[in-house]
Input
Amino acid sequence: MNEAPSGEASDRAGENGGTGDASSRQASENAGVGDATSPQAGENAGIGDASSRARADGADGARIARTGPVLSLRQAAKAFGAVQALVDGSIDLYPGEAHGLVGENGAGKSTLVKILGGVYQPDAGELLIGGEPVTFAGPASARAAGVAIIYQEPNPSRPARGLSVADQQIVEIAKALSLEARVLVMDEPTAALTSVEVDRLFNVMAALRRRGTAVLFISHRLEEVFASCQRVTIMRDGRFVLAAPVGELDIDTMIRAMIGRELGAMFHKTGVTPGEVVLQVEHLGRENVFADISFAVRRGEIVALAGLVGAGRTEVARAVFGIDRRTAGSVQLLGKPLPNGQPTAAMAAGVAFVPEDRRQQGLVMDLGIDDNVALASLARLRRGGLIFRSAERKLAITWAKRLQVRYGWIHNAVATLSGGNQQKVVLGKWLARQPALLIIDEPTRGIDVGTKAEVHRILDGLAADGVAVLMISSELPEVLGVADRILVLHEGRLTAEFDRADATADKIMRAATGQARKDAA
Ligand SMILES: Nc1ncnc2c1ncn2[C@@H]1O[C@H](COP(=O)(O)OP(=O)(O)OP(=O)(O)O)[C@@H](O)[C@H]1O
Ligand SMILES: [Mg+2]
Output
């Protein structure tokens, strides 16, 4: 089934990052890398052309002839009505190689993936498997050809209730592996995983490569691409921009090619003196989940809940908001008790909750971007029983702009947005509310590198305006960069608390893995 001699496949994998032949295909011809910073439109095509040439007659054509890509997509195009999701979707996947695919939210990555998976038929372009042109009539023919896909969106028809996002993802990966695929495509598989699971996934990817499988890996965490992939393809605005061995790119070059400009200034935190206590949590418990959780969040303060997946961070947040009932302790907002298990009462009291799994819990997929953003702010927009559509539109457009959402019309259904852009709409919906307390679970999950800093700036701005923010994040740089105070959970217990000035990644990790408590004891 697999034509690549396995010895050769592992050789190539081993040369990753070295100066050997793995780096020769393409690259030096790619004057386009520099050009990638130039203003978007016209020049784009030039970059693509340069790299296509490099791909076609690169210096090691002989090696390509020897192994050959197991899968090639050439200049695939796909439009949805007036939206041109893909203009030039091009990628070569080699046996025994992990290939990263990166680009901003809405760049066309998932659309390309769905073409590989037979979900969409391209309007133009060519798909080759083992050098032979193929047409996938549907997902079944893609599977039959040995292409297994783990999609970005969780399957809504599957009864996944009770399973965390991480667990669902692991189930999906196991299913794909059991198919013995020649090509395994994973669309943002790590978005819901933390370091331990990500490491495990990378080990699985490496094992597959040694077996000669071609892996396509999509992630907004560029360091993951550097850690796990040998080659990377960069897309922008539905177009192939460049492909290169990861060893020949640095992170800045990659970002420039992705966003077509320099990344804006780094986020700087505003020093706010915390005001009155907004949220007071005392001895909060939920049987068999977490126990004895006490903390406060003040006006102007951003408090982070750190810890590993499964430590109980999301569960604490849900119990504070009232989605889950607490079995012990109390929650007060601005000195008044919040009733147990009543999210509507919490909302009325001024609490906003941005859930972790935003596509399942945060959006009405068939409603427009405007309606979704306005949903949480209805009370403010309503005047004498009327909701002013113009006010709704204005609010939605303001937030869509701040969060750099890519959309056609503001009243388009959110179902038509890319995964990351849907995330941005959920964020916008809750941020627009200006609550007394904002609880936000994984604020930048699935959000592209160009917008992350903007989300951090917005959180900072809310705090400066006096909002109390309780943030859950698995990304340590985010925790360290954004939070004033950090609470660490381990197995349902608070194991440490750090002020911004004392916190380090190392201390947080030790507390998150339970070592800090043992040391102290
Ligand atoms: N079914 C659809 N109907 C209309 N437009 C769509 C549809 N699917 C995708 N699009 C549009 O195509 C573009 C590319 O979307 P795609 O999902 O491929 O992006 P992506 O690179 O995967 O982004 P992300 O990083 O956010 O997941 C977006 O502008 C999106 O709004
Ligand atoms: Mg996507």
Notes: Residues 109-110, 152, 187, 418-419 surround magnesium ion (ligand 2) (CB under 6 Å). The mean pLDDT is 81. The chain is about 35% helix and 25% strand. The chain has three domains: 41-259, 264-350+436-521, 368-434.
